[in-house]
Amino acid sequence: MSELLFQKSFNAETEQLKYLRDWVRESAAQRAFAPERIDQMVIGVNEACMNIIEHGYAKQGGEILFEVFSDQEYLIFQLTDSACTVDCSTIKSRELDDIRPGGLGVHFIQEVMDKVEYLPGKGGCGNIIRMSAKPRLK
Predict the structure, then answer these.
(1) How far is residue 101's CA from residue 2's CA, in Å, rounded to a whole number?
(2) Does domain 3-133 have CATH number 3.30.565.10?
């Protein structure tokens, strides 16, 4: 069973991401994650939030619920939005050899997290991304 460690709603604005990164760092540091591993988790959660802001809300604004859970094996970061529900099968990164700015957030998230789940929001509205990380470096 997972224990809720932290919960915070915030506006889906890039200006809020500094606080999000601080919350990730603090949650991981309290669980004695290595600094390099913490940096990886910060990248993954930040990229997931940027995807919600840019694609989910299409920069129109909304709220994101950020939750951090812990179980015996993982530190779990969960982001919930109320944007239009996304077909989870369409979430993918572009090809790495396609050199141009942007489009690699999903790739980074998959690389730095041990488990990534894309789920529909509760009641058929919104989206949930759940990212789980173990303390060790990959």
Answers:
(1) 37
(2) yes
* Mean of all residue pLDDT scores within the chain: 87
State the Cα–Cα distance between residues 75 and 132, nearest whole angstrom.
Answer: 6
3 bridge partner residues: 70
**Cα distances (Å, whole numbers) of residue 67 to 23, 46, 77, 79, 121:** 10, 14, 6, 7, 14
Q: Amino acid identity of 124?
A: G
Rounded average pLDDT over 103-125: 86
With bands split at pLDDT 50, 70 and 90, how would you rate the model's confidence at 46?
A: very high
Q: Domain ranges in the chain? A: 3-133
Instruction: Inform me whether the pLDDT recorded for 138 exceeds 50.
Output: no
